[in-house]
Amino acid sequence: MAVLSSIFYFVIALAVLIAIHEAGHFIVARMCGVYVERFALGFGPRICSFRDRLGTEYALCAIPLGGYVKMYGEDSSDSGKKEMQKLETLPQYKGRAFCEKKVWQKFLIVFAGPFCNIVLAWFLYTFNFMYGVPDLKPAVEITDVNGVAAKAGFKDDDLIVSVGGVHVADWEEALYELISHVKEDVVVGVRGELGKGELREITLNLSDWEIDPRKTDLLSQIGLNSLKSRVLSVVALVQKDSAAEKAGLLADDTIIAYNGKEYSRWSDFSQTIRDNPGKPVLLTIERKGVEQKLTLIPESKNIDGKVTGFAGISPKMAEAIDEIYFERKYSFDESVAKGVVKTYRMGIVTLQIIKKFITGDISVKNVSGPIGIAKGAGLTASLGLVYYLNFMALVSVNLGLLNLMPVPVLDGGHLFFYVVEIIRGKPLSQAVMGKLLFVGMVLLFALMLMAVFNDLYYGL
Predict the structure, then answer these.
(1) Catalytic residue IDs
(2) How many CB atoms lie within 10 A of CB 148?
(3) Element containing residue 292 per DSSP (H, E)
(4) Quick one: angle between helices 430-458 and 370-383, nearest 10?
(5) For the residues 256-268, what does the mean pLDDT come to?
(6) Are 440 and 407 in contact (CB under 8 A)?
């Protein structure tokens, strides 16, 4: 059922995003006097279709992985021009060929598709801000006292307020801004005591941070985690046949001290276990009001080529920290403005991440395809409407900006051709454009294969 649900919400999201994209091309084409022959959602055999009074066919096709707007006169080759000569005798075609329009008109028609995706993202963000978005403040806890974050100056209960000079209000914004600075030094503004403390600026070195699609806790590598609730010093679970069970630990035991050091937090205790594989760790515990001494010898496990200690216990969690949960809800005017800012920032972050893919700072194994997007659609839909719409907005920003990349076969490639035509005073030859389009198709196909491979290899 989960798979079917993911497919259903993926198809819905894709249909909306494609319909909006193609509607942009369609509307501006008609405004510029171009005859639109067909507006199709999907590819392949037609499931159903109808025509409007202007003769445009609206079709729903069997393969729901795209869409297109077929305009009269798109083919400016010799064979295309011969076909146009035949059709020019019909009134609906006369003077309405795409290729006969001015360069600026063709530019606007092509640009309108990606632009409408960006506008859709703004609309969805605006709606969510008006409706109310349940959110989590970017408060952190230290998971590794010897990690990059702790050494840089992060402390438990710090609240991230800015990354690289950009204000962040929730975990999504903080995480994306951090990812956009991977392999760099970035200045992070924090306030201690969950935002009540003084503002501090921390220079965080992310040069060794590797973004791994298999890990859900992306910040663990730099020694941070999102703070949602307090971790108690009480043992919740002892795994069968584990080192902890062999040492005599039981559920509900309270850790008081270890190796002569008074217990302060679970992350420090856990780090001591990891740092001592096969070596005795002396524990002082409290069981039913009575202190006891135990000797725990962590089991040795090879994790990513490093021998690490493993005890086989997990702690009890206290109730969630209410003050870091909040709702982002604004008036109409505020929501419109917040939607603009959110769309702009997600667009900038998207471009920065694309740049890091190109430079190799972020591994191409993070490129996701339809399976990954479907999983994201299913997961966010299960969480609620605002999460699903937020997911759609993010994908819409990505779709709009990716389509504007100057790669032949994408909208951005055609826009590049029109810019060259404006500069040269004439279009590129059909032979040159044909070769460039072939290269673009090969690159796009290779990217699609890599994305599907990543989905299957890393995502399943």
Answers:
(1) 22
(2) 19
(3) strand 290-296
(4) 60
(5) 87
(6) yes
d(C-alpha 154, C-alpha 192), whole Å: 9
The gap between the terminal CA atoms of the chain, to the nearest Å, is 16
* Whether 99 contacts 50, CB under 8 Å: no
Q: How far is 348 from 73, CA to CA, in rounded Å?
A: 36
Q: What's the confidence (pLDDT) of residue 408?
A: 84
- 36-51 and 290-296: which strand pairing? unpaired
Overall size of the chain counted in residues: 460
Could you read off the pLDDT of 342-390 as tens digits, one per residue?
A: 999 999 988 988 888 788 777 767 666 666 666 666 767 777 888 899 9
What is the residue-wise DSSP string for 50-97?
EE-TT--EEEEEEEEEEEEEEETT---SHHHHHHHHHHTTSTTTTT--
Name the residue with tokens 């990505």.
398
Decide: helix, strand or coil at residue 168. coil
Question: pTM above 0.90?
Answer: no
| Cα angle 196, 198, 200; round to 5 | 125
Q: Which residues contact 5 (CB under 8 A, 6 or more apart)?
A: 378, 381, 382
The sign of the CA dihedral 188, 184, 407, 365 is negative
